[in-house]
Structure formats: C-alpha cells, structure tokens
Write a structure and sequence with these properties.
This protein is mostly helical. It is built from 1 helix and no strands. It has one domain (1-36). The longest helix has 34 residues, at 2-35. Helices cover 94% and strands 0% of the residues. The chain has one helix spanning 2-35. The radius of gyration is 16 Å and the shape is rod-shaped. The relative contact order is 0.10. This is IS5/IS1182 family transposase. It comes from Microvirga tunisiensis.
Length: 36
C-alpha cells in the first residue's frame, strides 16, 4: 500500500506541474496577443 501511495503522490505532483505549465502557456499567449 505504501508503494501505491508514493506512486499516487508522484502522479499528483506531475499532474500539478502539467497544469501549471498549461496555464502559463495560455497566459503567455494571451499577453503576446494583447501586445500585438
């Protein structure tokens, strides 16, 4: 069970990282569009 819990925590961490990356990309695209 501990091994599964650790793997789940890693998946959650990677999921959060992907979310932050996606959000930052969208925000950057919006900022670049406003400048043009």
């Amino acid at each position: 069970n501990r091994r599964l819990a650790k793997d789940y925590e890693r998946l959650v961490e990677t999921g959060e990282m992907l979310l932050y990356l996606a959000m930052s990309r969208i925000l950057l695209r919006r900022l670049t569009r406003k400048e043009r």
